[in-house]
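Hey,

Quick one before I head out. I ran the complex with calcium ion overnight. Inputs first:
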Amino acid sequence: MTQKVSVLIIEDEKSICDFVSKTLQAHDYKTTAVHSGKEGLAQLTSSLPDIVLLDLGLPDMDGMDIIRKTREWSSIPIIVISARTQEKEKVMALDSGADDYITKPFGTFELLARIRTAIRHNNRMVDSHVNSNRPYSAGGLKIDFEKRLVSVEGKEVHLTRVEYKIVSLLAQNSGKVLTYDSLINQVWGPYADDNNRILRVNMANIRRKLEANPGEPKYIFTELGIGYRMLEDESLA
Ligand code: CA
């Protein structure tokens, strides 16, 4: 028998805790739910779960502090559950080390998809020395990282160096959102101008080259005010 994936839910809203716990248990996850930040931190260190679902608005603590404290010693995947619609907070959570976010109200399908993606991505990081060069493939888009070759439906696509860098970063994190700032940092370095204009210009060019209809992209999605998310690699799904 394989061991069940264990999920720690840190959320003070009982209805959400119940919904998430029931949904996950029905899909063969093991769940533990706590209702405060203090209990959450205690559970994190004592039970070492495989993944954390974290509410940002807790009664005793800001969820952001839990992310920062956890990241001091652990790379465990953290998905933020938030009622807050402000993009600023989601961006802050992602830049503080959260892996993804999910906005209330959310459905079963979205919850399960986010959890699977975060866990797979984490596993990939753990054995990335083995397969970091494995090609990306999804919906007709292929990227061969060794040959630096990008193709759509079998046709080679010519990208500039910067465009290739952006696309390969998104592909290596496929299924996950990357914030504008983290992309800018990784492509142009930490001293780059942090306005998004140059990134947006490059993205427009990338979409023109990759997408049949750049206005309705099927490979790289915009998360408004937050960043970009690339269609998840099929070989991982
Ligand atoms: Ca709350």
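Residues 128-236 form a domain with the Arc Repressor Mutant, subunit A fold (CATH 1.10.10.10).

Talk tomorrow,
K.
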